[in-house]
Amino acid sequence: MFRTKRARSFDSFRRSVLLGLIAISGLATAPVLAIADDRGSDEDWQPGLTIFMAGLPEERAGWAETEFQGFQDGESVGLPWSVGVGLEVASPPLFDFPAEPRLVVHAEFAYVLDNNDPVTSVGDPGGRPFVSPFFPQPISIEGQGAAMKAQAKPWVVTGGLGSQVEFELFDRAVYLRPSVEWMYRQDTIQSIVGAGEAEVLDGSGNCSPCRVLLIDAEREKGYHSLGAGIDAAIDAGRAGPMLARFFTTFRVYHILGDRKAEISETGTWELEDGSPSTRVPPTSSITGRHEREPVHYRVGAGFRLLWSPE
What are phi and psi of 141, to 5 degrees? Predict the structure, then answer.
């Protein structure tokens, strides 16, 4: 039977769209066309659940300045790990083609396990500085120093929209998913300084009484990121209508909007017993800035459980 010009044009359009999807995923057309014809095609929607573990490589920079510790800056490269679950749904095959291209949409929730990153630090700032009764000298006061820290909020939310194509590699079905990705996460930025000195300058070198200072300032900063991802999966087994696949994933993101967070805080000097200091100046301040690098990543692996009756 002869086909109309319009029908042939529509078929050509479908092939162009399909080849575009394959090109985005980095596949060559030859392996795709080599898929066995008897593999079959599941015409149903495929909802699924994912369980995964992922690392979140990221770079940060920061600086802090105080009146008595001076200016300090630093950089850090962190790799916090996370565990999470996700929900997804894959459409039926879009075209009658061996690669069985599908559209896939997913959302994931991850919990960050290691989320504390000291970007720059000098000394040992922490709690209220402690004056030893046996060594009442400024140099012996514990808890002195200044730091700029970043602590990731534990929950990370991600989502994406992409396609899935399959091909054969070493007689096994491989499922490749290129996608457009979104991520949202929050950091708690902390500037902290601890100091101690003599209340009365009498030339003895001792500080009895001593006065101490603790400034601990925090602010929260949220980041939206957009990027691209690629997942590769293989079948791991079947139990009734449930199909299990093992997958690996790599995603690269770029932060949208402002990446900087600034903190400026003033604290009051106190004597060891908590009473106000009478020495001038009675206050001191800390100023700091934290900045995330624009590009960050996610790498991980996990299992995908699909509802896919035979």
Answer: -70, 125
Polymer length in residues for the chain:
310
The whole-angstrom separation of Cα 164 and Cα 175 is: 7
**What distance in Å separates the CA atoms of residue 226 and residue 219, rounded to the nearest whole number?**
24
The answer to whether the CB of 125 falls within 8 A of the CB of 213 is no
Nearest C-alpha neighbor of 149 from the set 110, 112, 111, 193: 193
What residue segments make up the domains of the chain, in order of their start? 5-307
Cα R_g (the chain), whole angstroms: 29
d(Cα 297, Cα 257) in Å, to the nearest integer?
A: 17
- Report the predicted TM-score, pTM, of the whole model to 2 decimal places: 0.76
C-alpha to C-alpha distance for 68 and 245, rounded to whole angstroms = 58
> Tokens 């490749």 — which residue?
176
Of 192, 187, 188, nearest in space to 265 by CA: 192
CB of 91 closer than 8 Å to CB of 102: yes
Q: 31-39 — which CB contacts under 8 Å span 24+ positions?
A: 31/167, 31/168, 31/169, 32/98, 32/99, 32/165, 32/167, 33/98, 34/167, 34/168, 35/98, 35/99, 35/166, 35/167, 35/168, 36/168, 37/98, 39/98, 39/173
Tell me how far apart the alpha carbons of residues 223 and 19 are, in angstroms, rounded to a whole number: 34
Return all residues near 137 (Cβ < 8 A) that are at least 6 apart. 205, 206, 207
pLDDT in tens, the chain (310 residues): 334 333 333 344 344 434 443 443 443 333 333 333 333 345 789 999 999 999 998 898 888 888 777 788 888 888 889 999 999 999 999 888 878 899 999 999 999 987 777 787 777 787 788 777 777 777 778 888 888 888 888 899 999 999 999 998 888 899 999 999 999 999 988 888 888 888 887 766 677 788 889 999 899 999 999 999 999 999 999 998 999 999 999 999 999 999 999 888 999 999 888 888 888 888 998 888 889 999 999 999 999 999 988 7
